[in-house]
User: Fold Acyl-coenzyme A oxidase from Aedes albopictus.
Amino acid sequence: MSLISIGKRMPAQVVNKDLQNERNKCTFNQEEFTLWWVGGEEQLKEKRSRESYFESQPEFQDKVPLHFASHQELYEETVRKATVIFTKVKKLLTEQGKYDEKKYVHFMEALLGTGFIKEGNPLGIHFSMFIPAIVGHASPEQQDQYLKKALNCEIIGSYAQTELGHGTFLRGLETTATFDPQTDEFVINSPTLTSYKWWPGALAQTVNHCVVMAQLYSNGKCYGIHPFMVQVRDSDTHMPMPGIDIGDIGDKMGYKGVNNGYLGLKNVRIPRTGMMMKNAKLMRDGTYVKPSSSVLAYGTMVFVRVIIVRNMAQSLAKAATIAVRYSSVRRQSHINPELPEVQVIDHVTQQAKLFPLVAKAIALKLTSDNLWQMYERTTSDLNSGSLDRLPELHAIACCLKVVSTSDTATGVEVCRLACGGHGYLTCANFLNYYSLASAASTYEGENTVLLLQTARFLVKMWNQAVQGKQLMPTVGYLQNYVGKQVQQFPWSDSVPVIISAFQAVVANKLRIACQSIEKRKAKGATPEEATNMTGLELIQVAEVHGRWFVLQSAYEMFEKACQKASAPLVSVMQNLCKLVVYDEALRIRGDLLRFTTMTETDLVKLEQNYEACLQALRPNAVGIVDAFDYPDFVLGSALGAYDGNVYERLFAEAMKSPLNQEPVNKTFELYLKPLMKSRL
Ligand SMILES: CCCCCCCCCCCCCCCCCCCCCC(=O)SCCNC(=O)CCNC(=O)[C@H](O)C(C)(C)COP(=O)(O)OP(=O)(O)OC[C@H]1O[C@@H](n2cnc3c(N)ncnc32)[C@H](O)[C@@H]1OP(=O)(O)O
Ligand SMILES: Cc1cc2nc3c(=O)[nH]c(=O)nc-3n(C[C@H](O)[C@H](O)[C@H](O)COP(=O)(O)OP(=O)(O)OC[C@H]3O[C@@H](n4cnc5c(N)ncnc54)[C@H](O)[C@@H]3O)c2cc1C
Assistant:
């Protein structure tokens, strides 16, 4: 099959000349790149036909952009669109007969990850947390009861964990579920204002069910937080159920379609079997049966942290696509005064803003593939009763969630800045990408808190290494650094050596952090106090460990891809890999000077190599972002459209402003005229 034939969309309008020139310069076969990026011919065909379908649906066309809508109108419109999407696909999900995680995740990526609803999908939480919570926490009988109904949206749910008073410290949650042996029921209560659930997505007006995390009490004893299935609204009328106080928490910086809500429960009774009993159980007489590990109650969060990494890679790739295309169309200033003004992408500083982000987006996507494989292996182990790899998965998922969300949030902002003033317009669509990434830096575990979780694991692993114990694969490298003194790692500018230098930085900083903890304990601090005082060192260690994992994953995956790719594509891939590695290395240059034999001369060489990568990528920049294959309606940006007709599109967007629909606004008569006519 000819590569170009897989349902590729062609632009309807004339393409901007500069953008067309960029495409003519591209040295590699874009379709070959796209096939690699999306995972194969079948995936590409399916993706393009799905996108064409949704693009052609009149139900998806906004007459007036939603950013002009009120809070309520926006919610109502996003619910309408979400139901269009899921009515189309719910048959697919239930047809499988049984839940198949691979297919399910693929479906999620296709329909939630793509961002068909730019402002956030009010049914997103149902698919990304409620259903995974059923899979992770419900017994087989409970899965029979809820899973199929949830998959085909007969019931719609949220995941209600965070409260007004506590989001991070889960042991501090106050909602109670007290077992009543007389009636074989749990009585669920929000005893204080701070115990009100606050934030759960879609909770406000969208869902009728909820997995509620609450402190389990039986026979007067508290057993910690557990998940309970609670019906919050009537299935026919959607009125709140008795004892349920529920509503919207108000407008937010972004995710405006997601309908985040509050929930108070007053003596709400659910059957004992409403407790999700795959892991812990409560018997008829109130006896509590412990799970094999108490952290299994946190399982849904691990799953979501894993998929966030993929979601961030896609968001960054979209933002970079917009900024790279715009930078090729925008002309500003002369480099040679004799020649016309240059495309802004020819300013090296502009290349340094954008090209590393293109490479980073790809590296994050490759990392998410790797992480997903780890997740699958660990869940399969868990299903056969082994918890051995769970701490490792938890630790790596935490720091990767942090690196991916923080780099995407800052990366999108860099893309906005790279588009000058026009980048600040809502129709450029950076606001949506930024607010999604910024929200993800907080939700599913606040980023600093998650780095401390990774650090906790690393400290534990360091101590095990010191004792000569075997370490888990992602931290196996620590074993090479056990010893009393800081070790200078032998620097060279080859990519694999630089990646290993990251290990040296982690190991040496970890050694110093562990020593700091010990010194503080020796001075009388408790272990918790000493750890808190060492917090700054610990979060740095955890972040570099995450960055090492990204580089290692990207390197291995690029190497693998290069074995099959054509020569021109191999050259592009090698350059992208080098760029992301050099960029990350320059970011931690201080640590490299401290913990490796890198000299001033080596550093200058590294900077030169980095600049050479920018130069090498220049002719292919547009080719690469085109090959990400995001259709215009998915990018949703006047600056990033395939045809590059930026100025026409900006004008057309401005014409949609409600303020431009009448020649004179009423404020003239009401306020301006009186001001102008008033005499002192
Ligand atoms: C190829 C395909 C690839 C895939 C592609 C797929 C693409 C699909 C794309 C689709 C697009 C959709 C995008 C997504 C949209 C999502 C929307 C979501 C919206 C947001 C939802 C939310 O926002 S929902 C609430 C989340 N709220 C938190 O996130 C609370 C944080 N707070 C804690 O998580 C705990 O509170 C905290 C701090 C740990 C302390 O907990 P604590 O005090 O109990 O624990 P300690 O620190 O004492 O730790 C005690 C021991 O537990 C260990 N441990 C702790 N956690 C563990 C765990 N999870 N697993 C294992 N082990 C764990 C630890 O490592 C210790 O182990 P050890 O003792 O051995 O050292
Ligand atoms: C858009 C969005 C959607 C959400 N959706 C959901 C949902 O569907 N379901 C749900 O249950 N929740 C949801 N949440 C809530 C979210 O999970 C929490 O807000 C998040 O876990 C952070 O907790 P917090 O708000 O308590 O922050 P806090 O813990 O109060 O954080 C405040 C500051 O304190 C610091 N801090 C706190 N503890 C420590 C510590 N131990 N060590 C060092 N520093 C610390 C943090 O680093 C941060 O700087 C959502 C939040 C957002 C923004």
Q: What stands out?
A: The chain has 22 helices and eleven strands. Residues 1-5 have pLDDT under 50 and may be disordered. The first strand starts at residue 157 and ends at 160. The pocket of flavin-adenine dinucleotide (ligand 2) is lined by residues 125, 159-162, 166-168, 199-201, 255, 260, 439, 442-446, 448-449, 452 (CB under 6 Å).
